[in-house]
Amino acid sequence: MDIQNLLEDIVGAVQPHVGQGQVADYIPQLGAVEPNQFGISLVTREGEVFSAGDAHVEFSIQSISKVFALALVLSNDGDGIWKRVFREPSGNPFNSLVQLESENGIPRNPFINAGAIVVTDRLLSLTGNAAGAVRELMRRESGNASVDTDHRVAASELGRGHRNASLAHFLASCGNLENPVDDVLESYAQQCALSMSCQDLALAARFLASNGLGADGTLVLSPAQTKRVNAVMLTCGTYDAAGEFAYRVGLPGKSGVGGGIVAVVPNKCAITVWSPGLGRSGNSVAGVAALDEFTTRTGWSVF
Hints:
This protein is of the alpha+beta class. 45% of the residues lie in helices and 11% in strands.
């Protein structure tokens, strides 16, 4: 298969979708991003890199960071986090307060905001610097030592993050935070505001397509843990559109409201797509279309 030509064909095929949807203007810095952009990168299990379109443009990874924070907690702390976070699809918006209250402060999964706040809280307890730990993992796996938080985006999120603050205070009221709310929220905003390109992210995610094997030949996760992270990505990684994403794309994936999506073909490759326009559930319109096109053309799907 000529992967480079395939990616370039996909860039052309999804052009009608580029610019569709809405940028995440509730975070002012993200609202200013030019919507008519699209990039795609693929990194094979063996480390070959293929990119097309705007694959080298950096963007805010947002909720994609939740996968890497979860991987670090599982790696450092085993399965203890699952006493504080469930593993079920939410069926509700990613920032739902109603669901958290009805389930007594135990978030439905680690990829909705409440669940990710609990994961960040645990990572903060384990490392003393949760955002720094995620950043260092990204730098190491991508090979890009300049990966860093965009502090303008982080400040923009904290200034408008009233819903996340509500979730965090409710979690604390239920005894499901170990650290001060403000410290957890700052760590969470900094990790979500990491700025990376499609190529950086595909490289960083390669361990999820390689049974947990990192870029330096050591395990980021055990094979069993990798399987479980991918499973939660498949069922929960695209919020209340997880069923639609599984139907159209058929891969484990994690989206972010910066317009990026990371997807994994186990034992083959990691793929990142990016286009800022979001659909109703907060997933990139052109990104989902591109991944649909990719799995349809290649037949590379977990189904």
